């Protein structure tokens, strides 16, 4: 098994949409119920693409981030702010077996920066991997997002409504936000560091 230097993926989807079909219907002045399934698919697609475009998690969700080495400064920046919690940190051997699970006293988290950070405490026994142990992988599982749909900023919801309405009008998902959505969502976009 060969490890990439870092990789992340969502391991638990949000439990609810940040905007509802009824909200989109009012926003876009849609009076029929026959297309509710399609409207939901546009909401789902634009929300997911909006999260990718903004580099941010909207509703609560869980992510897994893997890297091959601790950064030299012992600080791991976790993609998709806002960071809520770190749920698990473990070391995996090349064959995928768990070598160790780090207890929370081995690190602390910083949630008031974007992106959030996991900071390994100096003196942690997991700073040095034995030379004869072979390749290893650090896996961090964490929760991010604003919380429920009610907790997501109204600006993000408005940006998604404009985007989903544009997708409905064109009858096709859009890879980039329309101008109005982009102008609203831009203030929530996480800069590339």
- The residue ranges in which pLDDT falls below 50 over 5 or more consecutive positions are none
Structure annotation, total helices: 4
Main pleated sheet = 5 strands, antiparallel
Helix content: 25-40%
Q: Looking across the biggest beta sheet, what order are the strands in? A: 1-2-8-4-5
Structural class based on helices, strands and sheet pairing:
alpha+beta
How far apart are the termini? 29 Å
Q: If you compute it from the alpha carbons, what radius of gyration comes out, rounded to the nearest whole angstrom?
A: 20 Å
What's the SSE pattern?
EHHEEEEEEEHH
| Mean pLDDT reading | 89
Strand content: 25-35%
Overall outline? elongated
Structure characteristics:
single chain, 193 residues, alpha+beta, 2 domains, 5-stranded antiparallel beta sheet, 3-stranded antiparallel beta sheet, 4 helices
Ordered list of secondary-structure elements with their pairings:
Elements: E1 6-12, H1 21-28, H2 36-54, E2 61-67, E3 75-78, E4 83-93, E5 98-101, E6 107-110, E7 116-120, E8 136-144, H3 154-170, H4 179-185
Antiparallel strand pairs: 1-2, 2-8, 3-7, 4-5, 4-8, 6-7
Helix pairs in contact: 1-3, 2-3, 3-4
């Amino acid at each position: 098994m060969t490890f990439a230097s870092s990789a992340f993926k969502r391991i638990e989807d949000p439990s609810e949409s940040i905007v509802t079909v009824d909200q989109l219907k009012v926003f876009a002045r849609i009076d029929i119920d026959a297309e509710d399934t399609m409207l939901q698919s546009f909401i789902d697609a634009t929300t997911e693409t909006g999260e990718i475009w903004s580099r941010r998690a909207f509703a609560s969700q869980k992510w897994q981030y893997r890297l091959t080495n601790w950064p030299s400064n012992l600080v791991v920046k976790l993609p998709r702010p806002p960071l809520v919690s770190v749920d698990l940190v473990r070391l995996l051997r090349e064959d995928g077996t768990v070598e160790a699970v780090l207890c929370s006293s081995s690190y602390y988290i910083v949630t008031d920066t974007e992106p959030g950070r996991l900071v390994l405490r100096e003196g942690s026994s997991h700073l040095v991997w034995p030379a004869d142990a072979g390749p290893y992988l650090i896996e961090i599982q964490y929760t991010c997002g604003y919380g429920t749909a009610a907790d997501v900023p109204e600006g993000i919801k408005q940006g998604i409504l404009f985007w989903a309405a544009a997708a409905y009008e064109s009858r096709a998902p859009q890879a980039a936000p329309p101008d109005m959505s982009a102008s609203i969502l831009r203030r929530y976009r996480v800069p590339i560091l």
